[in-house]
Design brief:
heterodimer; A: mainly alpha; 0% strand; B: Fumarate Reductase Iron-sulfur Protein, Chain B, domain 2; 5-stranded mixed sheet; 8 helices; 35% helix; 11% strand; elongated; binds iron/sulfur cluster; binds FE2/S2 (inorganic) cluster
């Protein structure tokens, strides 16, 4: 057992070796993924204030932007995204290389799920969405500009293409999570004959709730609530 | 009955390969899949053609040599069965069956359906053992082992190193095999002295052989002829994380 001989007790080297290893890489991808799930929950909680009303939503957004710690949190968030993406890409490339000549017929025995099969595709979709989402809603590229974020968001949701893309993208998030959450638990070594079946169901339920929560916003404000008077007054005049 | 086979033929690792179609006549339901291939070879030899190269040894499901990808499934359609335990009663007259070698960078092709799985031996040699004094057999109850631990270790140890987990994995990952080999020692008192060194060394050997990263697709467990469980991979992940932190 000569392994780690050159890495013996030098801790930076140990950390590097961990990150370079197949198992270490996936533990980091999973950890970043779970933390990003935490972000999704807080983001959704904030978004749901739209149902309370434009005032509440704008006040929340105001409080968030004026918090001096926000840039730090944002940097952390970008770091998590980058870690998750870079390590996933590297693992995917290594996996391609691990089977240079593929099968003519590959069927498997039915263990893969729609979510697990599409992790790369949904990942790319989510990344594209995040870029567009941040550009349009945070930096207000295009659409109705101004300090009234609620009106700005409603303006975008009024565009059916934007709303449809939004729903599709958060569908991608749900599909990604349907595999990702239980997969992360397995990666952390959480596997127990009694709890794992329940945890897998909980992971799926979480994915569905996240999807429904986010998707409900463009559906409601883009297609259902649109005709109501309250909305249009806000849209035209702004709340300030 | 007649079976039409589309079999991967390739002279050697460097030569180009392709699926070649053969019709095997005189197949009976009692034959195993390998006996059906033997029949094909008899017919090929009678025609003066080069017989098909494929591996087998025990032909009773315990050695792990008979590794074939049959219609896109490692060891064929049956659950928890090796290729040699697959029988032609599964098929009917006129069926078309595609047979390919196990595919992975870690399993280089030798000829036709034969691949070199010595990567598994090297992983095993890196840490899949206990260093102990081998004198006369010790008193059986000198080391107390809880029954469930003994059972779990035994379940893990039933891995026959066939490589179906790698073949079935979309990422050609060897995690289930390595997990089984790490677990069989990690679960027992005899495995404790080398617990951290073992998992670090075997992980390193596994990656060096060019196997892919596990993304929890779980096709390995579905393909394993010995029913090795995913919980072993979770244990491997825990063991690796633990060893990374605590080993000196
Ligand atoms: S874990 Fe199962 S499929 Fe993999 S080598 Fe062992 S017996 Fe074969
Ligand atoms: S030939 Fe030994 S397991 Fe099939």
């Amino acid at each position: 057992m000569e392994a780690n001989a050159n890495c013996a007790s030098k801790s930076p080297c140990r950390v590097f070796e961990f990150l370079e290893s197949s198992i270490g890489k996936k533990i980091m991808v999973a950890a970043a993924g779970i933390l990003l799930c935490g972000f999704l929950v807080t983001h959704l909680a904030g978004n749901l204030l739209m149902y309370v009303g434009g005032e509440a939503f704008n006040r929340y957004a105001e409080a968030l932007v004026s918090n001096p710690l926000l840039p730090l949190a944002e940097a952390g968030l970008v770091g998590l995204f980058l870690l998750h993406i870079v390590l996933s890409i590297r693992a995917t490339l290594a996996n391609r290389a691990a089977r240079p000549e593929g099968y003519q017929v590959y069927k498997g025995k039915g263990a893969r799920t729609p979510g697990s099969r599409t992790m790369a595709v949904t990942g790319i979709l989510i990344l594209a969405f995040v870029v567009i989402h941040v550009a349009t809603l945070k930096y207000q590229v295009g659409g109705q500009k101004g300090p009234d974020l609620f009106a700005h968001v409603l303006g975008w949701f009024a565009n059916p293409w934007y709303s449809i893309f939004y729903v599709l993208a958060v569908g991608g998030v749900g599909l990604h999570l349907s595999h990702g959450v239980q997969s992360a638990l397995q990666t952390f070594g959480v596997n127990h004959p009694r709890y794992t079946p329940a945890l897998r169901k909980a992971g799926l339920a979480f994915a569905i709730l996240i999807f429904l929560g986010f998707a409900s916003l463009p559906v409601y404000f883009g297609f259902i609530h649109k005709t109501a008077d309250a909305c249009c007054a806000t849209m035209e005049g702004g709340s300030k | 009955m007649n079976i039409t086979l589309k079999v991967w033929r390739q002279k050697n690792a460097a030569a180009p390969g392709a699926l070649v179609e053969y019709t095997v006549s005189g197949v009976v339901p009692e034959m195993s899949f390998l006996e059906m291939l033997d029949t094909l070879n008899e017919q090929l030899i009678a025609k003066g053609e080069d017989p098909l190269a494929f591996d087998s040894d025990c032909r009773e499901g315990i050695c792990g040599m008979c590794n074939l990808m049959i219609d896109g499934q490692a060891h064929g359609p049956d659950k928890e069965a090796t290729t040699c335990q697959l029988h032609m009663r599964r098929y009917k007259d006129g069926d078309v069956v595609t047979v390919e070698p196990f595919r992975a960078k870690g399993f280089p092709l030798v000829k036709d359906l034969v691949v070199d799985r010595s990567a598994f031996d090297r992983i095993q040699a890196a840490g899949g053992f206990v260093s102990t004094h081998t004198g006369g057999a010790g008193e059986a109850n000198a080391i107390l082992i809880p029954h469930d631990m003994a059972e779990k270790a035994m379940d893990a140890a039933s891995c026959i190193g066939c490589g179906a987990c790698v073949a079935a994995c979309p990422n050609a990952s060897a995690m289930l095999f390595v997990a089984a080999k790490v677990s069989q020692y990690a679960l027992l008192p005899q495995g404790q002295p080398e617990r951290e060194k073992r998992v670090l060394a075997m992980r390193e050997a596994m990656d060096k052989e060019g196997f892919g990263h596990c993304t929890n697709e779980y096709e390995c467990e579905a393909a394993c002829p010995k029913g090795i469980k995913l919980s072993n991979i979770a244990r491997l992940n825990r063991e690796f994380l633990r060893a990374t932190i605590v080993s000196e």
